[in-house]
Amino acid sequence: LSLSPAPPSLPPPLSLPPPSISPSRGISLSPSPHLSLSRPPLSLSPPAPLLSLSPARPPPLSPPLSQFLDIWDVNMLRRPDEVNTPQHSTHLYASDHLIVRRGQEFQLKVTFDRPYKPSDDQFAVEFVIGGSPQYSKGTYIPVSVAKDRQSPWAGRVVDSTDNVVTVGITPAPDCIVGKWRTYVAVVTPYGIRRTRRDESRDLYVLFNAWATGDSVFLDDADEREECVLNEVGVIYHGAYDDMSERPWNFGQFDYGVLDACLFIMDKAAMPITNRGDAIKVARKASAMLNSHDDDGVLVGNWSGDYTYGVAPTSWTGSTEILLNYSSSKTPVCYAQCWVYAAVFNTFLRCLGIPARVVTNFFSAHDNDGNLKTDVILDENGRIDKHRTKDSIWNYHCWNECYMSRPDLPQGFGGWQAVDATPQETSDGIYRCGPASVQAIKHGQICFPFDAPFLFAEVNSDVVFYSRNPRDGTLEPVKVNSSHVGRMVVTKVPGQDARRDITDQYKFPEGSPEERTVLEKAEEYGCHREKATPPEADVELDMPLMEVRVGDDFELKLEFNNTSDQARTVDVYVSGNVVYYTGVTSSEFLFKTPRVILDPKKGRRVMEVHSQDYMRKLVEQANLHFIATGKVKETGQIITSMRVVTLHTPKLSVEVSGLAKVSEEMMVTVEFTNPFKFNLEDVYVRVEGPGVMPPKYKHYSLITAGSSLTWTEGVTPRRAGPTKLMASLDCAALRQVYGQAQLTVKP
Questions:
Q1: Rounded CA gap, 631 and 633, in Å?
Q2: pLDDT band at 468 (very low <50, low <70, confident <90, very high)
Q3: What's the pTM value of the predicted model, to 2 decimals?
Q4: Active-site residue flag, 730
Q5: Is residue 282 part of a domain?
Q6: Do both 664 and 608 map to the same domain?
Q7: Is 396 among the residues known to form the active site?
Q8: Is 459 annotated as belonging to a binding site?
Q9: Is 337 labeled as catalytic in the residue annotation?
């Protein structure tokens, strides 16, 4: 190994040639006598000319080999009850290897053939990653305990008792994240004695949100606990004023998940040297979590036909998805936005990057930085469905990860928005972010990555245009600037409650700050509708309704005639079954009442029957009502939109028996079909971190009014609070969830 000479003011590094790696033979090492159980000849390898610790060639009367240290054993101190894992907050990982976080000291014990002396400083602990380790690239790290030796990673003798030396090693806070191989080498005048390759000594090094020198350092202890160590999350969906929530097992500590996350970077052919950069890791993963152009983890499907995979609404956690991907090496079917976000969250937390799932209600899509969502009306005020192409998602989930941004001006670090759902390409690949949330809020959308797209998702205006039938020209008749980005929420740290973080993405609607931000965004190419049509003197609203699947209900239209004269309004009311992306599946209601309004007030009620919508429902049971109308006396256009998320029945999850480590307990999932029709081809899934791996059961038929009961024996593997979560899914009924909280005793 040829190293650059050390600066004159610094002592030279301990220069050891790294272990050689042969494609055909694996690792070629100088053997250690006791670890290899056989003593090699004295001529182990050529003298080490790069070391200044011994002469370039042996003196005429060389000391006997027995005077130099011989390595008998290396203990990585990887058990959960030993010093490393509690200090590094890695005790929850189910792994046979030591897992530590960079920028923080860990310890290992080396047993020699004789007591260690302070003069015995000619040994080093070596760490190697990748297929062609090089000191200059940071993929070969020799760590010396000698104080006069420099190394990228610090090393020291913590304790020396008899033949056992405890060595403390501190990985650099910007070192490569991944799986390192560990060796111990001793220098003699005759060559280097080095331990053989032993997979049990492999070491995982992760990002460290606890270390101030790490780019992902997060000073808020509650946020850090939630966004790195919490395995169970809540994902919000539905409508902003009628939210639903689903539990999710991120499972970042489950057995095999860490290797699966590292495999994702291998599959992407991500250079080893880039894997210590949180920005590059997050951006690469946002591309690899979808399979759109790189055989990534998940196949997106919004069609409603999931014959050849698992329906997105059926998943309960990330573990099954990631383990399937790493074992099959092929994309897993199927996902929609919250599945992408949940699995991406697992990836980030598993590697040590603080991350959380956020939900944006009424999220504008496919705007490509244009701050307008266009709705085309005909001359009578009715929506022209053939010409209205833009859609607004009822909600959209993405991720935020916490990191510094040295590539941006000061103040734009912290939470960064990243999105794995394949919507638009970025630099030719379906990916999005990381984009500074602070930059989005302040309209600084010139900063990388993909800030204009994310800015549009929370700031677009809904513009209603009236189309002239004679020449096809469009005239803006109403601009709704508060519909999109109505609310952005995430989970409260340490609680199963939601937190409104809309103010982190945008200033209050209509405030001077918001106006300044929009003007700033326009400087960078975002275009808004400048017209300000006069407000109509008739207002229209559809109030909130809570409706269960299968119920008949009343749709209320509330008019407010603010003028002192009577008004006549020709109204068009359309009810559609829609996907949560805003795409219409089918129309089940269309009425065209003429409403005569006295001054100041008015109301109209319409009956909606379950038989009209039930047979047309798609997976998330969303009904979208839009009412438009034209005031006869003034020619003004009025509009109102309402999303009704039909509430589904609950799934019961109960535990019985003593919840104790290594003792069997029972989990029971129960469901009763409350409908007048049968449920066919039903899948029930259940899992719980530290308690139960993902399992599922198939039921070919659940007749109307009948019940199912599934009881499963489980054996908890670790103590502490946790959850069991379950889902029931079939073509006729999606979004059925249940959960149970429990605390496992030691």
A1: 6
A2: confident
A3: 0.89
A4: no
A5: yes
A6: no
A7: yes
A8: yes
A9: yes
